[in-house]
Amino acid sequence: MREYPLERTRNIGIIAHIDAGKTTVSERILFYTGVSHKIGEVHEGDTVMDWMEQERERGITITSAATNTFWTPSYLYPSGSPPSHSALADAQFSDQIKNLKKTGEYRINIIDTPGHIDFTVEVKRSLRVLDGAVVIFDGVAGVEPQSETNWRYADDYRVPRICFINKLDRTGASFERSLGSILDRLTPNAVALQYPIGLEQEFLGIIDLLTMRAAYFEGEKGEDIVWKDIPEHMKKTAHAWRSKMIEKISETDETLTEKFLEAKEITIPELKKALRAATLAYKLVPILTGSALKNKGVQLVLDAVVDYLPSPLDLPPVKGIDPETGAEIFRNADDSEPFAALAFKLQTDPYVGQLTYFRVYSGRLSAGSYVLNSTSGEKERIGRILRMHANHREELKEIEAGNIGAIVGLKATRTGDTLCDPDHPIVLEKIVFPEPVVKLRIEPKTKADQEKMGLALRRLSDEDPTFHISGDTETGDTTISGMGELHLEIIVDRMKREFSVEANVGRPQVAYKETIKQKAEAEGKYIRQSGGRGQYGHVYLRVEPLERGQGFLFENAIRGGVIPQEFIPAVEKGVKEAVEKGVLAGYPLVDIKVTLYDGSYHEVDSSEAAFKIAGSMALQEGSRRGKLVLLEPIMKVEVTTPEQFLGEVTGDLNSKRGRIDKMDDRGLGIKVIDANVPLSEMFGYATAIRSMTQGRASYSMEFDHYEEVPKNIEALIIEGKK
Fold first, then answer.
1. Which of 241, 250, 329, 592 has its CA 20 to 30 A from that of 233?
2. For residues 18 and 700, what is the distance between their CA atoms, to the nearest angstrom?
3. Do domains 318-428 and 631-719 have the same CATH topology?
4. What is the CATH number of domain 514-626?
5. CATH class name, domain 6-203+283-314
6. Is residue 78 very low, low, confident or very high in pLDDT (cuts 50, 70, 90)?
7. Helical residues (DSSP H) of 59-144, grouped into ranges
């Protein structure tokens, strides 16, 4: 029997740029909903959602943490505010409140995601399985680089969202400037539902523009919402903002547009209904505000989650492919439909082993049953089903459509795989992850660490699709690749702490790539005669460049049996190996199409090994003829600096082959520089920018695109001098 109906279920993510206050908001949510009885603080290292040692030491989120909680909208309570923790714990509190909990309580599944660009995989895979998102912004900085990246991911997966402009108590905070940055850089459809009463040290409360009342947050932890009249000196401002809000909401609904044009009164229920519909259709994004650290505004964010973000029933049926016929099929969010779920995250737990996080789109799953992994084609037995609360677990006998859980002990399931009813197979859309841009060599300190290191690296790469391992068979070196220096630093730290592996680590290097600029053809002929049976393989290949980001394609255009069919896979294997090793400087070849169009064979001497070598030879020769070039990762860099250091900072970026796109003001003599800079020039930039600006500037960067390396730099890279 389902505990909470689907219409009262919400699956949301909390996303933002690093240090915007995501985890602080999450901790308040857990406190106000009664899950935790103490508010954890990031700066004190005792948060529930940031549970890893590395997260608590650094004060940042590294891995997404899932939890679930329950919320009855504050406006449903007779007092206009949820009861205090002591009242919730008291079995004698009124029947009226008990009844409210039965009829008005919502289950909210929450994923708190990292803000640092190195852990962007966590945001991407979380948004793939979530129905809605709360996007947090720093009230001083407004939209920051990772805010834009996360917003794009949410657009890709068509995730409705609400925004919370946080930290209005900070010096330099501005609600209007932050809202302006959202309107300019993210969406013109943002609509303010609230307006702050005061700013910085004077930030006292929030005006609700729908009801035209002022909310103040009293009690030791801001748990009591006290509604009052709007301060006299702010009434004119509030009315102006409410008019803007009503106009924007009315534009999305024909009936309300008529009422607005005829200057008729539009009721609060009408506004809320239209706003919900517009939010679900991506036509509007509600904006709320407050200060999570000062315990102001978080309960109203929960109310907005319930009011404006979708339940699983509000979304279209999930689309998939029938693995047998290739036909499109759909699954509704319904317990009676065949089971379908997506595995979106793997995590190694020291107590229970490997956990597979999954989102159920349709049907129900029981412990002890069997499911089909339709991506790999293997059947898996479901051992234990868990509901996760950060790193704590609650065992379930069954999980239904619309919920998020974890399974213990799946053997063949990886991130992005589909789990489904064996009698009704379906393959859901996979998650596409960005390629790593930084790599380093790693070796075990002792022979005893050798085997343990291999196991640890495999486990960690299973967990994180943006973490890659490669080995050089000739030198025996192991190279690990990731999204940035911090990403790889955390991986090495986790190996030491979780798997007790000591390792020597090289310095970070750029993950260059190779590609060709023009079409070319080449012959590969491998003939060996050494008494007895010889070796004969002979192929003609055509190579041609593809659009950036398209990867590698192999096409078999052999006609008339000039090369027997059994040797074609060997040619492809030889080509792939050559592509992975590279030709120019040992970096992988990308964005290249290889067509096998001719060749010959010997009835006795031809073998798979000979055709594999011939394919590799032809690829290398064809690539050289195709004007090989090196590609380097270009980073999108944002530097925030006091105006007095602007000249020095821009001069330094120019000296790093950087291209400055634009410069903006951020008030109080602060300048923001947006630039594109090669990653190879950015190692050690944190120290350089600090010494250049007396420690007063900060920067953030994220991968943007690959670009051709200038010839003079390319020569240095090939010689190994850069």
1. 250
2. 9
3. no
4. 3.30.230.10
5. alpha beta
6. low
7. 85-89, 95-104, 120-129
Q: Considering only the top CATH level, what class is 440-504? A: alpha beta
CA distance 133 to 117: 18
**Distance between CA atoms of residues 405 and 418, nearest Å:** 14
pLDDT-derived band at 91 (thresholds 50, 70, 90) equals very low
Mean pLDDT of the chain: 84
pLDDT of residue 468: 86
Phi, psi of 218 (to 5 degrees): -110, 175
pLDDT value, residue 85: 40
pLDDT at position 305 is 94
Q: Where are the alpha helices (DSSP H) in 251-308?
A: 254-261, 268-280, 298-308
In CATH, the architecture of 631-719 is 2-Layer Sandwich (3.30)
Task: Count CB-CB contacts under 10 A for residue 5.
Answer: 12
For the chain, state the CA radius of gyration: 29
Q: Which residues pair with 351 in a beta bridge?
A: none
pLDDT tens string 489-498: 888 888 888 8
Residue 603 burial by CB count (10 A; 0-12/13-18/19+): exposed, middle or buried? exposed
The predicted structure's pLDDT at residue 339: 95
**How far apart are alpha carbons 498 and 666 in whole angstroms?**
42
The answer to whether the CB of 143 falls within 8 A of the CB of 174 is no
Question: What residues form the annotated binding site for GTP?
Answer: 16-23, 112-116, 166-169
Q: Which residues of 691-704 are buried (b: 16+ CB within 10 A; e: fewer)?
A: ebbeeebebbbbbb
pLDDT (mean) for 271-288: 95
What digits encode the pLDDT tens for the residues 625-638? 999 999 999 988 88
**Domain extent listing, the chain:** 6-203+283-314, 318-428, 440-504, 514-626, 631-719
Secondary structure tally for the chain: helices H, strands E: 18, 38
| Predicted pLDDT at 117 | 60
> Distance between CA atoms of 634 and 676, rounded to whole angstroms?
6
- Token output for 481: 């690749």
Tokens 């394919």 belong to: 615
C-beta of residue 405 within 8 angstroms of C-beta of residue 385? yes
Residue 383, token pair as written in the block: 């051992």
Confidence label for 97 from pLDDT (cuts 50, 70 and 90)? very low
661 to 182, 185, 188, 639: CA distances (angstroms): 19, 14, 22, 12
Coil, strand, or helix at residue 388?
Answer: strand
Task: Indicate the pLDDT class of residue 37, thresholds 50, 70 and 90.
Answer: low
Fold of 318-428: Elongation Factor Tu (Ef-tu); domain 3 (2.40.30)
pLDDT band of 365, cuts 50, 70, 90: very high
| DSSP 8-state code for residue 291 | B
> Which residues does the annotation place in the binding site?
16-23, 112-116, 166-169
pLDDT, mean of residues 531-541: 84
In sequence order, which residues have a C-beta less than 8 Å from that of residue 267 and are 6 or more positions away?
none
Residues in CB range of 2: below 8 A, 6 or more apart: 335, 400
Q: Could you give the CA distance from residue 248 to residue 40 in angstroms, rounded to a whole number?
A: 38
CA torsion sign for 688, 689, 691, 692 is positive
CA distances from 642 to 637, 664, 672 (A): 16, 12, 9
Handedness of CA 578, 584, 586, 588 (dihedral sign): negative
- Burial class from Cβ neighbours inside 10 Å (0-12, 13-18, 19+) for residue 587 reads buried
8 A C-beta contact, residue 408 and residue 355: yes
- The number of residues making up the chain comes to 722
From residue 1, alpha-carbon distances to 210, 247, 397 in Å are 37, 44, 11
For residues 719 and 722, give the distance between their C-alpha atoms in angstroms, rounded to a whole number: 8
